[in-house]
């Protein structure tokens, strides 16, 4: 078999084309060594790197809008009206040299969150809240971040209350205790003998107050103890023990 001398790479290649290509490929795939003695790896096909796209995290000032009647949450239609009212107010309540900017407007379960880019934008909302309220034609209130509703579940057993509406039940609690129930919401009612067993969502501030009172509140003609933990009584014997431990509240 004839051999061909390659003047460029000093390879002796067979005359057959297939054998020559195979020998050349073998030589090229050998690791190369530089002057320092380190071996270079032959670069393979470039693989696309997997990139994680993280949502932008805004550290702006957060404000909230909530219905004045806390038991009635803002509907999707009302939140849409409120968004339009905020934008309308930016057209009519102009501050020279200032442009109100917002990073987001997010519906929540009971209220709407507005993220202002900075303190100046938040101050603009505070100072023009009356106009926003008028443009929306909604009975709403403005909340600071520390006032945002927090969904903490508590439970209570209430004597002679099976016939009461949720609004009346919460009204009695607020009328007889130094606590606001405007952000409370009854989410479940069950009957336990002659007692009403109510599961209630309360705000953070109320939970702190109830914890300080160890859950004990005045209710109608006596006192009752609210359960502040999210655990449920699992059997009838536990229910009976709990009911017997309640103070009289007839």
Provide key terms for this protein.
four-stranded antiparallel sheet, Alpha-Beta Plaits, 250 residues, 7 helices, three-stranded antiparallel sheet, alpha+beta, 3 domains
Give, in spatial order, the strands making up the sheet with the most strands: 6-7-5-8
How many domains comprise the coordinates?
3
Give helix % range. Answer: 25-40%
Put simply, the count of helices is: 7
Radius of gyration: 35 Å
Envelope shape: extended
List segments where confidence is low: pLDDT < 50 over at least 5 consecutive residues: 47-57, 231-250
CATH class of the largest domain: Alpha Beta
Q: Briefly note the structural class of the backbone.
A: alpha+beta
- Which sheet architecture does the biggest sheet show? 4 strands, antiparallel
Instruction: Classify the beta-strand content into a percent band.
Output: 25-35%
State the separation between the terminal residues, measured CA to CA. Answer: 114 Å
**H and E string:** EEHEEEHEEHHEEHEEHEEH
Number of strands: 13
CATH architecture of the largest domain: 2-Layer Sandwich
- Could you tell me the CATH topology label of the largest domain: Alpha-Beta Plaits
Give the mean pLDDT: 78
Task: Describe it.
This protein is of the alpha+beta class and 250 residues long. It has 3 domains: 29 residues, no CATH class; 87 residues, ACT domain (Alpha-Beta Plaits); 94 residues, 2-Layer Sandwich (Alpha-Beta Plaits). 30% of the residues lie in helices and 26% in strands. Helix 2 crosses helix 4. The chain is extended. The termini are far apart.
């Amino acid at each position: 078999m004839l051999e061909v001398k390659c003047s460029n790479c000093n390879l002796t290649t067979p005359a057959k084309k297939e054998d020559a290509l195979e020998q050349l490929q073998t030589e090229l795939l050998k690791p190369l060594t530089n002057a320092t003695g380190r071996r270079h790896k032959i670069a393979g096909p470039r693989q696309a790197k997997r990139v994680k796209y993280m949502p932008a995290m805004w550290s702006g000032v957060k404000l909230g809008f909530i219905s004045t009647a806390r038991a009635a949450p803002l509907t999707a239609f009302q939140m849409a009206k409120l968004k339009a009212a905020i934008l309308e107010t930016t057209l009519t309540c102009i501050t020279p040299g200032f442009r109100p900017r917002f990073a987001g407007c997010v519906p929540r379960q009971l209220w709407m969150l507005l993220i202002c880019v900075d303190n100046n934008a938040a101050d603009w909302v505070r100072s023009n809240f009356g106009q926003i309220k008028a443009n929306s034609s909604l009975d709403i209130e403005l909340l600071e971040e520390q006032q945002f509703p927090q969904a903490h579940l508590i439970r209570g057993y209430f004597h002679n209350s099976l016939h009461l509406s949720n609004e009346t039940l919460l009204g009695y609690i607020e009328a007889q205790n130094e606590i606001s129930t405007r952000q409370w919401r009854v989410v479940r009612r069950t009957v336990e003998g002659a007692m009403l067993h109510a599961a209630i969502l309360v705000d953070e501030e109320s939970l702190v107050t109830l914890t300080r009172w160890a859950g004990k509140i005045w209710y109608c003609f006596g006192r009752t103890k609210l359960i502040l933990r999210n655990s449920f009584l699992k059997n009838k014997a536990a229910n009976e023990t709990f009911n017997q431990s309640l103070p009289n509240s007839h």
